[in-house]
Amino acid sequence: MARNSHHSPASRCNFHLFFFFFLLVAQHPSFSYANNHNYVEALRKSILFFEGQRSGKLPADQRLKWRRDSALKDGFSTAGLDLTGGYYDAGDNIKFGFPMAFTTTMLSWSIIDFGKNMKTAGELNNALNSVKWATDYLLKVTAVPETVYVQVGDAFSDHNCWERPEDMDTLRTVYKVDRAHPGSDVAGETAAALAAASIVFRSRDPHYSRLLLDRAVAVFEFADKYRGAYSGSLRSAVCPFYCDFNGYKDELLWGAAWLHKASRKREYREYIVKNEQLLGAWDTINEFGWDNKHAGINVLISKEVLMGKDDYLKSFQQNADSFICSVLPGTSHPQIQYSPGGLIFKSGGSNMQHVTSLSFLLLAYSNYLSHAKKAVPCGGGRFITSTQLKRLAKRQVDYILGDNPLKMSYMVGYGVRYPLHIHHRGSSLPSIKAHPARIACKAGSRYFLSPDPNPNLLVGAVVGGPTNISDAFPDSRPYFQQSEPTTYINAPLVGLLAYFSIHSVA
């Protein structure tokens, strides 16, 4: 069951309590956790998770053996084309295009910035495979001009059942955006994903890279020409699961930013400069996820400014600095809550999506600052250094891996204690090998309600995390907002783990 990233403002009085505790943890080593983590192992497992989310015909080198082929008829009867492949977004059996495209963008950005670290850790090829599994599918859903197929499967039908993807008999309805039913948000994110991936494959597979970039250009032109949010025409299918709460304007800037980075064409830079105010690059500067790209846009574009290549985009770097000052404890205008255990917390469910995405931006920006030999001015004469950003990002990663009040890892299969009852159909039902006979829609309910641990380990899956700001966690399938893993939680974490697998932070 997917979820949105909509959340309410933080409580001012609670913030000061948590801020005080966080400062104690951050400034006094005696309050810190002492575990030494194997980031290479965590990196390997975080990438392996994506193999458990694969849809379609599985390859011979599939490593999670309890998964089998699934959804092999997607698109053929309903759209007249092959829409097999791609990823299931979470613990359900739907292919949602919006979060899948964001997942692809973040996996690609992870490789672009931290691919050398992945290579050193021996995981680069696996990371590349995780991107290509997604982009092969994105090329299929964008094959018809001025059309993007944005979802396969009826979410209400799917959520009425608890069955393995290999047994699916729920509706595999196909949904699309086109000229009459625009979806600039999902199309803009898809263009960003294709453009970012084209950079990943530029030297490794030039022909494939050109194909991705050409398609990104066409999809972006469609997104920009026919403007509108996809939840307008597809509300009954995509809401409340991946409704667009934030509007489509940020995805247009995000898509243009990635196309500029991938193509180096002046037209995209001019588009960004021309549309900066119209599309609201400064809005909600400390939000970043599948629905809201503002902080990501500012950090991504800031690299150009910090390298001295484009002062015309200076406002984006100023926005990125403001983002940093809104996240860091002890600055003049902090806007982020922290739990007593030191975890970034935003209300609204599936909190780890915010933790990994925001932490990725902290790390990426810290590297850009480091190379430019600059710091972030946050008022009152205080400057935030790149090392401080890395420390905070590492603190979030370490919390996920077990440095928290519960002393448990939120990554399945990592550490001695981790979630055993995750909200995930394939993991919680017997595998095809263990139970060859089909398990019908409602027959799976007894496994959903069982107190027994999941029989199949979805290695590397990071769940939604603590229930609330108290660091509490119910290891229980029905609590989907806490116990369900998603691809867009893991995708930014891949880059973070790649960096910390090689670099230590004092």
Automatic annotation (TrEMBL):
Annotated Glycoside hydrolase family domain ranges read 39-497
GO BP annotations of the record are: cellulose catabolic process
UniProt-recorded name of the protein: Endoglucanase
Q: Tell me its family.
A: Belongs to the glycosyl hydrolase 9 (cellulase E) family.
Keywords noted in UniProt: Carbohydrate metabolism, Cellulose degradation, Glycosidase, Hydrolase, Polysaccharide degradation, Signal
According to UniProt, the reaction catalysed is: Endohydrolysis of (1->4)-beta-D-glucosidic linkages in cellulose, lichenin and cereal beta-D-glucans
Do you know which PROSITE patterns this protein is assigned to?
A: GH9_2, GH9_3
A GO molecular function term, named singly, is:
cellulase activity
Q: What is its EC number?
A: 3.2.1.4
Name the source organism. Aquilegia coerulea
PANTHER family found in the cross-reference section: ENDO-1,4-BETA-GLUCANASE (PTHR22298)
| Signal peptide stretch | 1-34
Which InterPro entries does this chain map to? Answer: 6-hairpin_glycosidase_sf, 6hp_glycosidase-like_sf, Glyco_hydro_9, Glyco_hydro_9_Asp/Glu_AS, Glyco_hydro_9_His_AS
Q: Which residues form the active site?
A: H423, D475, E484
